[in-house]
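[Target chain]
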Amino acid sequence: MTNSRNPRTGRRLWVQDGDTTVPEAFGEGGGCVMGRRSLLRLVLTACLVISNLIGAVIAFVLLRWVVPGADLRGREFFWITILVMPIYMLMALSVGIPVGIATALRRVDWTFKDDFEPTLIQRERALSVPSVLTRIQMAYWLGACTLLTVLCGAIDVRAILQVGITLLFAGTVVCAVNYYTSVFLLRATAVRALAGAPPSAGFVSQKLMHHTVFSWVLGTGLPVVGLMLIALFVYVRDIAWRGVEAVPDGGQTVLAISILSLGSVVLVFGLLLAVLGQLAVRSSIRRVRSAMRFVEDSHTRQLTRVEISERNEIGDLQVGFNTMAESLEERARIYDLFGKHVGSEVVKEAVKSGYSLTRQSCFVSVLFVDIVGSTSLTLERSPTEVVEILNDFFGVVAEAVSLHNGFINKFEGDAARVVFGVSGSSSSNHAAQALRCALALRARLRVELPACRVSIGVATGDAIAANIGTAQRHEYTIFGQPVAAAIELSTIAKSFPGGILASSGTIDAAENETAAQWHVLDLPEQPHGVSLGPTVAVPLAGSAG
């Protein structure tokens, strides 16, 4: 895995085998399998133990000093609050959490094996680990709620509602916090389980609305219900003691303390639940945004994917982005392939006009370049050498044409037909560009392929650009008078020392600075079937492209 930076924004992108991704967590990446398992076990255990201890302490404080009801500080409750509660919590932590961690690791064990292909059931079991851990914790919190409610209620009936609601509230909040924590810690496991199997592949769908409502119930609904029950309890008790000189413990004071205490708990744990929920969503959305920036910077030819890490609408978004990326890559490949046939500028024009490369008349310049003596070349050289020479030759032609804003319309054996001036492919002064390209091409071939002698013809005139062929197979080509003239000029140029001839029409259409590098002379004999005019032009000695 390598990291690179977005060239436009400077942000860091993580790329692996062409994929945009993020740094791996516990489920994948470097390090030995045992080391990653041990790290995951350690982190999960620490989070579960700490959160359960904090929940137990908060429940203890609420029961003894905050929630109205029986006075649990009395001697009759001493053995319950000081002995039973700590012993039960110690047993739950020493038995329940190890059982939960062991169950979780068994379900995700295959995710540590890079070459393992899981079944659908194994994927579902790995994805359900946060729920399994939450159910195990709910079991021992419900056990604590039932046991302590019965024991305290046997001593004072007022403690039933007091203990039951408090422990139920504390256990629910602790389980919710641990659920979101385990989802966050096991994100790499979810990515591994969902790899190759999108959210619609038979998994139980989890909607964002469910998560939002769940968080609201835990962070707001339950605490508010608790406050309402406390207020109701105090109100009923005050009515029951109406007419008595003093209400036990002072109803208003108890209510105020309860509201302030539970309000503080709501603020802290409500914020914690919101942060944990947003961290999960934010991480997934940032992956998609990072990949979108990667695509915006025209990296569509490189494989760009986001990891699928959710089974909800976020997962659908990730799948949708990957589908879009595949379409963009396919379009880029077609664009590149099409450009190799007709030229990138023509492709741009076709895309701009809705791919309507219909027949059109155009005023263009055509350059035709041919290897002189290609027949003897094929007889004197091996097929491999001939292919290498032709590839080198066409490589030089392609580079020179690209620099002068033309496009190669077609390769014809050992020759190439180049067009300047087709809509979108060059500026209006295409004649000058064709002349400069001819000079540059001759200069480069003399240096890079001295054994390869060429003849070049350049002509300008009205032509037709169209798709020629059938509905099943056709090609975009240029034909007309300038094409035939360029081919004929290339043939005549073989008998001229410089090997280049241009039509008088091309010289007339070119700008003065370029035309001044050419010398016009009379054409001794008109070729049969092609009208070249009475004069042609050859480059002056020392002319360069």
Observations:
- The first helix runs from residue 33 to 66.
- The radius of gyration is 40 Å.
